[in-house]
Amino acid sequence: GDSVTQMEGPVTLSEEAFLTINCTYTATGYPSLFWYVQYPGEGLQLLLKATKADDKGSNKGFEATYRKETTSFHLEKGSVQVSDSAVYFCALTQEGAQKLVFGQGTRLTINP
Amino acid sequence: GAGVSQSPSNKVTEKGKDVELRCDPISGHTALYWYRQSLGQGLEFLIYFQGNSAPDKSGLPSDRFSAERTGGSVSTLTIQRTQQEDSAVYLCASSQAFGSSYEQYFGPGTRLTVT
User: Fold this and answer.
1) pLDDT tens for chain A, residues 1 to 112
2) Which of A48, A78, B35, B73 sits at a 20 to 30 Å CA gap from B5?
3) What are phi and psi of A96, to 5 degrees?
4) Is residue B64 helix, strand or coil?
5) Contact list, B108 vs chain A (CB under 8 Å)
6) Contact A21/A36 with Cβ under 8 angstroms?
């Protein structure tokens, strides 16, 4: 079945550091790919998405590119802030299906 | 506008008791989903409803779990004869319509603890 694998956490960085959170997937066909974020005490919210190969999703300074050749959707940000501290989830949905398949989540802590 | 709301926010119950969890989706959203977030299993899909179509129950872990959606709006997830492994945060989400291009908006969740 479909699955998503994220880099192990937790990840701790200093403010203004460069961030990469790796995400790879296993799926047939052409899934849509997502990054969701869960800030402390808040619900899950969509950060960005890409629906076809080579698409780049971006939001709040975060970017991720849908790479079909490497089945990856790595999340990057050039300069992180303390407010980016959260748990990040990579996810996919299959064509014609609605359920989100999530990775295990990566807890990110940014120190001032 | 109002987001997805869930109640109760926390529920502690004894093993063997039945529990009901409620979800109020965003007004006008035709699709509604239930997920479970637990330490051992991560975030996993349980069930979704789309309009008047038959629900996709493929993620329900056992026949102790059931859900209904009345009038195309409010949904209730029922767990019968709760077990300790049912302890988790139960998340509800809704979206405008069917299709991966429609964002799923999540509620704050119900934390269920089975003692």
Assistant:
1) 899 999 888 999 999 999 999 999 999 888 999 999 999 988 899 999 999 999 999 999 999 999 999 999 999 999 999 999 999 999 999 877 778 999 999 999 999 9
2) A48
3) 75, 0
4) coil
5) 42-43
6) no
Kindly report whether the peptide bond that precedes residue A40 is cis, defined as omega within 30 degrees of 0.
no
B8 preceded by a cis bond (ω within 30 of 0)? yes
3-class DSSP state for residue B21?
strand
3-class SS string, chain A: CCEEEECCCCEEEECCCCEEECEEEECCCCCEEEEEEECCCCCEEEEEEECCCCCEEEECCEEEECECCCCECCEEECCCCHHHCEEEEEEEECCCCCCCEECCCEEEEEEC
Distance, in Å, from the CA atom of B111 to the CA atom of B103, rounded to the nearest integer, reads 23
Query: Nearest Cβ partner of B103 from A42, A46, A89?
Result: A46
Task: At B40, list the tokens.
Answer: 């051992």
Q: Tell me, yes or no, if B55 comes closer than 8 A to chain A by beta carbon.
A: no
CA distance A81 to chain B (A): 24
What distance in Å separates the CA atoms of residue A24 and residue A74, rounded to the nearest whole number? 8
